[in-house]
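Our preliminary data section would be incomplete without showing what the modeling component actually yields. Below, a chain of 198 amino acids is followed by its predicted structure, encoded as tokens that our downstream tools consume directly.
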Amino acid sequence: KELGLDYVDQLLLHWPLPYARPPAGCPPDCSERWAGTDDPMRPRGRDGAIVVDEELSLRDAWSALEQAKAAGKVRSIGVSNFNPSEIAVLLSAPNATVPAVNQVEAHVFWNQEPLRASLEALGVALVAYTPLGNPGLYGGQGLESPLVAEVAEEAGLTPAQTMLNFLLARDILVVPKSVTPSRIKSNIDFELRLGAAQ
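Predicted structure:
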């Protein structure tokens, strides 16, 4: 209702841990249990560890998404940042819904091949939320990589297209982020050209 929609296309469990909800007013007024919380969406203790809701199981959280789907409030349900054993927990109930997708960090420098193969066997699509790399964590590994630039020149693609091509050729869905119209068009409008050696 708050979104002004009859349904949403897809809803994901963002993390395989059910975060506890901090009390009203935290932050900034947080008790010891919540002392490291600077954002109510990421509750943390003084040590920086996530505060987990011990009473809510992963399976219970998944069941809530299944119920939303059954009620027609969402068309597709999936997960983000789950490993195969965590997905197995979701599928432990009779007639459990298989997640449509698992959205994870994936790019040329971390192609997630073992995870992709495991998900493929379950019928779960792998979605890369960082298909152009993660410069905040890996610095020059990404669009600025000399290797990516070399392969892009050989293939007649931009560095971004090269990185997207690499993942798409491996049946990994991509969600590149850009606010620049010309880059958005460039990230969509290209032919897959990378050869097996690239």
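The chain has a mean pLDDT of 91. The first helix runs from residue 58 to 70. Preliminary results of this kind motivate Aim 1 of the renewal.
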